[in-house]
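Worked problem 6 (solution included).
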Amino acid sequence: MRPRVTVIVPTYNRGALVTRAIDSVLGQTYPNVDVLVVDDGSTDDTLERLRVYEPNQRFQLVRLEHNRGVTGAKNAGLDNLGAETAYAGILDSDDTLIPGAVEAIMRVFESNAGHFSQVFAWGVDVVTGQPTGLMSHREGPVTYDDALSGRFAGDFWHIFDHGLIAGRRFDERASGAESAIWWPLLKQRGAWLAPDVVLLVDTSGTDRISPVHYGQSLAIRRMWTCHAGLAAVADDMRDRYPRRYGDWLVELAKWSALAGERRRALKAAREGIRYAPSPRSLVMFGLVMLPRSLVRGLIGLRSSIRGASGSRRATPAS
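Solution. The predicted structure is:
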C-alpha cells in the first residue's frame, strides 16, 4: 500500500463549483488518495451537493456552523487530518487537479524518502493558458532562500509531509499568509519543484475578478496577512534580503493605513524607508499621515490605473 494522501478542499458558497474540485481528487490515478471537504458555513446549496458523496469512503465532510474565512477553513482541515494520512495538500474549491497530479508529486517523495518537506508542481490559468507560478527553472530544488528572495513566487500546487506540519496553523485574522507555514517548513527541510502541470486555476469567477474595494474589513485581513508572513520570516528576510523586507513593510503600512491602524502603519512605513528607500516608500510614508478615506481613494485610483494598463504583480508562492 502506497502512502495515504489527503487533499483538503475548503469551500464557501461554491455549490456550483466545488463538485468539480472533488471529482478531480477522486479521479486521481494515484491509488491511495482521499478528499476532506471543509464547508465553511455555506448558505447556498453546497451542503446538499456534498451529501451525494457521503457513501464514498474516500470522502470526508467537516461542516463549520459559522463562517470562519478561508484560513479558518484550512485550519479545520488540518485539524481533521487522520493519523493514517502521510501526506496532504490543499485545493481551492474552484480549481481542479489533472488526473495524474498526485501521482506525479508522490513519485518524487517516494524516490527521495525523508528528503523533502514539500513537493511543488505547476499550475496554469485556464483563461490565459499561462503558468500561475514564477521560478527560474522548470524542475529542481526549492530552497528557503528562493522563497525569501522572491525567486519562487505565484501559485503552484503542492503536497506536504504531514509528519512535519505539527501544530503549525494559519492566522485566521488574515486572508492568506500561507508563507507563514510553508516557508518555515522550507527552512526545516527543502523542497522540490516537479516539471509537471498538475493544477488548473480558474480565474473566471466573479469572486476572483470583481472590482477591488478597499473597505476596512478587507484592509484588516490584508494587514494581518502581511503581519503573519513577516512574523514568520522577518529576521531572516531582513538579514538576507533587506530590500524585499522593506517592500513587505511598505505593503504592511498601506493595509494598516486603510484599516485605520495609523500607529502600526507609521511604524511600518518608517522601517520600510530604512530598508527599501524608494519613491514608493516615501509616498507611502506621506500617505499614512492622511485621513483613511483619502488614502483609500488615492490607492484605489492607482490600482485602477495599474489594472487598466494590464500590470500584474506576483504573490508569494503557497
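Discussion: The longest strand covers residues 191-201.
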